[in-house]
């Protein structure tokens, strides 16, 4: 309840002082040929200070979402028309969606504070999105209630001194296979920690419903691996749509590195940017960021028992395999694909939500230095996936809170399939 109170105060403050996006629009564009794709790539590389590419311009005939400030909308439309690039407005006013979701979060917190039925079981719930302190308090509360199943530890501090939290869920014993899950790589992808914390609760609080998943598997979970960026999206002086971490870049006024371009496996071989202001800035060197190094060291400490690495992102509804650096497929792609298909089938069976399955390069775009490529190619984990959760762009990063639980329910069904396969490996 203490965390809820401070979250309420922070929410009220943020409404007044956070960066605002009045009049910003998100356009869906479609590069029909190589020339128009090159135009969009050049726009992203050279005007990242103006245009925020919510999805990457890597393949022709694949929709690309771009947020455009109001002062540049006419210029952007003129450019699209000049190069015969199909476009449409996908989100007419970004701030309107952000503001509606802020009010919804505020309303949920107020209801909790006024509740006459006593304090909720945990500081965190899945009716609204939660800042890092609330998530940390939830981890403490759950571990205290179930000490025989769950332990928490701090495996390091971020650049700004926030904790890098690791949860281990296990019934003990040795020689067990493991699954590693992380969330919150990109700060604005709030649905990611919301799902990862749901997995923790489901495994621990609902252990009796499926004891085999914990009796036979050790789970290692990091709910927020970019804590500085994540907190900044909630902060009173922050930016709801911030993506990167928060370390200043030497020789540049621009802050932050895209941590999912910072891992040392085919790093900087295309699919990232060398420009510090770019949203996909790779950091200037592999593992330049303290957060990436902490993730690396944590995974390497358990890599010999880990069978599956899952990194949770949004948005787009994709279940992605390596590789990101090449269109070539991993040697075990058939097995990767088969498991993904069966997992997504269970996910889709819940609400009909459709996911696209395939390697990152072949179904999306080239991206070098991502954590899933490194987990498989660097740490030697046999199965690695990136999950891009809801939606397909109607709301983008501002997925309404009312979709958190449906998203979590359907995606949990997929995680169960993964767990069952690990037990059989």
UniProtKB/TrEMBL annotation:
Active site: 388
UniProt-listed InterPro entries: CARBOXYPEPT_ZN_1 (IPR057246), M14A-like_propep (IPR036990), M14A_act_pep (IPR003146), Peptidase_M14 (IPR000834)
Keyword Disulfide bond in annotation: yes
Annotated signal peptide: 1-17
Entry cofactors: Zn(2+)
Pfam families xrefs: Peptidase_M14, Propep_M14
Keyword presence, Zinc: yes
Protein name: Peptidase M14 domain-containing protein
Taxonomic placement: Eukaryota, Metazoa, Ecdysozoa, Arthropoda, Crustacea
């Amino acid at each position: 309840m203490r965390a809820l109170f401070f979250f309420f105060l922070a929410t009220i403050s943020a409404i007044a002082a956070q960066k605002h996006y009045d009049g910003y629009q998100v356009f869906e564009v479609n590069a029909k040929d190589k020339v128009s794709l090159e135009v969009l790539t050049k726009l992203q590389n050279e005007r990242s200070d103006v245009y925020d590419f919510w999805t990457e311009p890597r393949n022709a005939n694949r929709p690309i979402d771009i947020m455009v400030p109001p002062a540049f909308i006419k210029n952007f439309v003129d450019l699209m028309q000049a190069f015969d690039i199909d476009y449409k407005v996908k989100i007419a006013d970004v701030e309107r969606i952000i503001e509606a979701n802020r009010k919804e979060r505020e309303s949920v917190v107020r209801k909790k504070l006024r509740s006459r039925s006593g304090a909720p079981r945990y500081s965190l719930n899945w009716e609204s999105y939660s800042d890092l302190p609330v998530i940390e308090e939830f981890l403490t509360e759950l571990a205290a209630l179930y000490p025989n199943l769950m332990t928490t530890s701090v495996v390091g501090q971020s650049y700004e001194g926030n904790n890098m939290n690791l949860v281990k869920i296990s019934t003990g014993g040795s020689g067990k296979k493991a699954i590693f899950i992380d969330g919150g790589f990109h700060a604005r992808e709030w649905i990611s920690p919301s799902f990862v914390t749901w997995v923790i609760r489901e495994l621990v609080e609902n252990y009796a419903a499926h004891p085999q998943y914990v009796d036979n598997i050790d789970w290692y979970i990091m709910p927020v691996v970019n804590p500085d960026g994540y907190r900044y999206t909630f902060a009173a002086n922050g930016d709801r749509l911030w993506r990167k971490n928060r370390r200043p870049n030497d020789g540049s006024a621009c802050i932050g590195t895209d941590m999912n371009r910072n891992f040392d496996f085919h790093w900087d071989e295309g699919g990232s940017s060398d420009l510090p202001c770019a949203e996909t800035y790779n950091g200037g060197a592999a593992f330049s960021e303290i957060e990436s190094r902490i993730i690396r060291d944590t995974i390497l400490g358990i890599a010999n028992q880990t069978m599956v690495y899952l990194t949770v992102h949004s948005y787009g509804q994709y279940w992605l395999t390596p590789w990101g650096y090449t269109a070539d497929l991993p040697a075990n792609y058939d097995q990767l694909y088969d498991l993904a298909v069966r997992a997504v089938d269970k996910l889709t069976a819940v609400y009909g939500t459709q996911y696209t399955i395939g390697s990152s390069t072949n179904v999306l775009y080239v991206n070098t230095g991502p954590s899933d490529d490194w987990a498989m190619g660097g740490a030697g984990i046999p199965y690695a996936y990136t999950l891009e959760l809801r939606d397909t762009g109607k709301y983008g990063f501002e997925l309404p809170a009312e979709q958190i639980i449906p998203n979590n329910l359907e995606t949990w069904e997929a995680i169960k399939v993964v767990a069952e396969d690990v037990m059989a490996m």
